[in-house]
Design brief:
Bound molecules: 2-oxoglutaric acid, fe (ii) ion
Number of strands: 15
Number of helices: 9
Strand content: 25-35%
Largest sheet: 9 strands, mixed
Strand order of the largest sheet: 1-2-13-8-15-6-5-3-4
Radius of gyration: 18 Å
């Protein structure tokens, strides 16, 4: 049942078993040896990749404001914010497909644990990456991931706290539309009977969450991370059946395309041509 299992080594079968049981997995220090662990910082990105297209998200109580800019400008905004010169809204560089924008970044990644992913994603895993840069204090409110995928999450720099809530608790969490929730797991009332568990992850750690797990994420120290949302045939099929829960039509499309790809009915290139726009889709 629900919970978080921690390991100091990678055993793919063991990870899959935990996920199948509805548990998240933390692999401590799995990517400690990546050059990115020492290299990546806001100033590194500003110097090396000033022209990267960045979406800044400002999370409000019940809305998300977005601003499109460049990495050059984002890091300026971030530094002004940290110096107290840019208001109180926290600028979060959130969900950027950085490796699609510049494959030069791949040089900073050492050995990649692609065996965690279904073979469909292994060769071109970097195409699916979404990147995050955030100052201490940034919060991503409680949600599950858009396509109801599994989530393979890499913490590169700094520390985050994930608070997880199992999928079956979704209707107790004051759901807003398809995937966002007003329930704040950091302000639990005695009357809340919602199961939850927290875990802190540090640079070099990897977190894997099973499909549909709700998560609230607090950046504890200035942070850089990236993730890969991935389906298996089972999770893609299961996501399609959730069309009865106000799932947006776009999701139906991306999940159907994923299932066709995973089941071998669509070549990877034609799959990706159709899936590509998901990586810039905000929902
Ligand atoms: O790290 C965060 O703030 C959000 C991460 C997240 O929601 C995800 O990886 O799906
Ligand atoms: Fe998420």
């Amino acid at each position: 049942m629900f919970g978080i299992s921690e390991f100091n080594h990678l055993d793919v079968a063991e990870c899959q078993q935990q996920l199948a049981e509805g548990k998240a997995v933390v692999l401590r220090g799995l990517v400690n040896q990546w050059p990115a662990i020492d290299l990546w910082s806001p100033t590194y990105f500003q110097k090396q990749f000033p022209d990267l297209e960045v979406t800044i998200k400002y999370f409000g109580a019940s809305n998300i404001r977005t601003q499109n800019t460049t990495m050059q400008e984002y890091v300026d905004i971030l530094q002004k914010f940290k110096a107290g010169e840019a208001g109180t809204e926290i600028p979060y560089c959130h969900d950027i497909p950085v490796f699609l924008q510049t494959q030069d970044l791949l040089q900073d990644i050492g050995s990649f644990p692609s065996s965690i992913l279904p073979s469909f994603y292994q060769k071109q895993w970097w195409k699916f990456v979404q990147f995050f840069m955030s100052p201490a204090g940034a919060v991503t409110p409680l949600h599950f991931d858009t396509l109801r995928t599994n989530n393979l999450f890499f913490q590169v720099a700094g520390k985050k706290r994930f608070t997880l809530v199992p999928w079956h608790q979704r209707n107790a969490c004051r759901r807003r539309g398809w995937r966002w929730f007003d329930h704040n797991p950091e302000q639990v009332q005695d009357t809340d009977l919602i199961e939850q568990q927290s875990v802190e992850i540090n640079g070099g750690d990897v977190l894997i969450m099973p499909a549909g797990m709700l998560h609230h994420v607090r950046t504890l120290t200035d942070s850089i991370s990236f993730n890969i949302d991935y389906h298996t045939k089972a999770t893609a099929f299961s996501a399609l059946t959730r069309v009865i829960e106000k799932m947006p039509r776009e999701n139906l499309y991306y999940n159907a395309v994923s299932l066709l790809g995973l089941a071998g009915f669509m070549h990877h290139d034609s799959f990706f041509k159709r899936y590509r726009s998901y990586l810039n889709y905000i929902s």
